[in-house]
């Protein structure tokens, strides 16, 4: 049940409990309204708890040094690059 459904159940239960003054044979609409409001509040709490767990930050750690493969490479040769300022860039 999502947040929207929970709010809808709370609103529908409040309407049945507080706004309507109708008698239905063998059915108390006040009790039905309270039950719907309770289900909506319970659904809202459960949705918050379930969705709250999904928003936690996940942290990862690097594997220990003894398991990592250590590679040594020879030093890289570097070239010196000079920029000429007397040539205009192409348009």
Task: Annotate the secondary structure layout.
Layout: H1 3-19, H2 29-54
Helix pairs in contact: 1-2
Structural account:
By secondary structure, the chain is mostly helical. Helix content is 47%, strand content 0%. Helix 1 packs antiparallel against helix 2. The longest helix is centred in the middle third of the chain and has 26 residues, at 29-54. It starts with a helix and ends in a 37-residue tail after the last helix.
Summarize it.
The protein is an all-alpha fold and 91 residues long. The protein has helices at residues 3-19, 29-54.
Features:
single chain, 91 residues, mainly alpha
The helical percent reads 40-55%
How far apart, in Å, are the first and last alpha carbons? 61 Å
The amount of beta strand, in percent, is under 5%
Helix/strand order, N-terminal first: HH
> Would you identify the regions where 5 or more consecutive residues have pLDDT less than 50?
none
Main sheet, how many strands, which sense, barrel?
none
Class based on secondary structure composition and strand pairing: mainly alpha
Q: Taking Cα atoms only, what radius of gyration do you get, to the nearest Å? A: 34 Å
The general outline is elongated
Overall average pLDDT: 80
- Report the count of strand segments: 0
Separate helix tally: 2
């Amino acid at each position: 049940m999502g947040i929207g459904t929970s709010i809808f159940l709370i609103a529908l239960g409040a309407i049945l409990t507080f706004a309507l003054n109708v008698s239905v044979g063998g059915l108390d609409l006040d009790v039905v309204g309270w039950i719907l409001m309770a289900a909506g509040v319970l659904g809202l709490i459960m949705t918050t708890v379930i969705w709250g767990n999904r928003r936690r930050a996940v942290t990862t750690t690097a594997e220990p040094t003894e398991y990592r493969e250590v590679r040594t490479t020879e030093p890289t040769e570097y070239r010196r690059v000079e920029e000429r300022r007397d040539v205009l860039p192409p348009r």
